[in-house]
Design a protein that fits this description.
The protein is α/β, with parallel strands linked by helices. Helices cover 56% and strands 14% of the residues. The protein has a 7-stranded mixed β-barrel with strand order 1-4-3-2-6-5-7.
């Protein structure tokens, strides 16, 4: 049977149209040979979701997003339609979530629930969306940006104050200070060299000094040994013991003196009575005066008290008062 050119052209055209439709569906990740179930979710913001986005359950692709349209009954709300080509079942209590990608695009995720009535084709599932990684980063970086701006402003003020402080006079003073510091370091370097030269020239002398010091130390050690061998330490100890005994005798004398002082203060003994009894003192004073009067009288009139004779004859007339005076 011979096929005409028209039939061949029609077959080729139909094949091209079918291949084009299959390629378009393949690019949209839809399977034309499998029946799919359609579900819907409502969102206020789809976070860059497109019709070519995949639908996943537990990270596994189970479908594709087919349509995104505005809700005619509520302004600003979007209805996302998505088809599932897997026989995976879940309840109407399941939820959906749009997860924005880091470099653009978004993933449509079904969070399945198995409690309640199973969802069927045409069911609406509750939808929600995450803020996205970039939005979270921007939210966390906002306070840091404010602090960074504050730090930059403070740094700018600090630089302005430094520029105002470091005027021409201040810069000249700093240069002069650095120059003087360099001179000081140069002098210190010269002094260090002089000290090194001095040490190098007098190394032998320092060695002699150390030798003499060692010799003196040995002599002192020998003298100490001689003192220990001469038993001077025992003599010193005996002297200290005798000194301690003398000090003990002194303590006894002091104690006795304190006792005598207490007895005198209390009026005991003759001396104590003399110190404490005013009458005894007055009697002694009167006796002293009478003794002085007697002595004066004996000096002036000795004949009243002394009688003597060359022949041992007593004077019977007795005492005759001298009236020639």
């Amino acid at each position: 049977m011979k096929i005409s050119k028209e039939i061949k052209s029609a077959i080729i055209g139909i094949s091209a149209i079918a291949l084009t439709i299959w390629g378009y569906s393949y690019l949209k990740k839809q399977n034309l040979f499998n029946t799919s179930r359609m579900y819907y979710s409502k969102f206020n913001n789809i976070q860059g979701l497109t019709k070519a986005s995949i639908v996943t359950i537990n990270g596994f692709q189970v479908g594709n997003v087919n349509s995104i349209n505005f809700n005619p009954n509520k302004k600003g709300e979007l209805i996302v339609g998505y088809s599932l080509f897997d026989d995976f079942t879940f309840s109407k209590n399941s939820t959906t979530k749009i997860i924005p990608g880091l470099m653009g695009g978004a993933e449509f995720k079904i969070i399945p629930s198995y409690d309640g009535e199973n969802a069927t084709s045409g069911s609406y599932l509750i939808g929600s969306s995450d803020a996205g990684m970039m939005s979270s980063i921007e939210t966390k970086l906002a306070p840091l940006d404010t602090k960074l701006n504050t730090i930059l402003l403070d740094a700018d003020k600090l630089l302005v104050n430094i520029n105002n402080t470091l005027n021409e006079d201040t810069q000249q003073n700093i240069r002069a200070s650095i120059s003087k510091l360099n001179q000081t370091l140069s002098h210190f370097k010269n002094a260090s060299k002089s000290l090194e030269t001095l040490l190098a020239d007098n190394t032998n002398k320092f060695g002699l000094i150390l030798d003499n010091t060692n010799a003196a130390t040995q002599s002192l050690k020998t003298m100490t040994n001689d003192i220990e061998q001469a038993n001077l330490a025992g003599d010193i100890k005996q002297t200290i013991t005798k000194l301690n005994g003398s000090l003990s005798n002194v303590d006894v004398l002091i104690a006795n003196f304190n006792t005598i002082s207490k007895e005198l203060s209390s009026g005991k003994g003759s001396i104590g009575k003399l110190l404490k009894d005013d009458g005894l003192y007055i009697n002694l004073e009167n006796a002293t005066k009478e003794m002085e009067e007697l002595m004066r009288e004996m000096k002036e009139h000795p004949k009243r008290f002394v009688h003597f004779s060359l022949f041992g004859k007593k004077d019977k007339k007795g005492y005759v008062e001298d009236t020639k005076k």
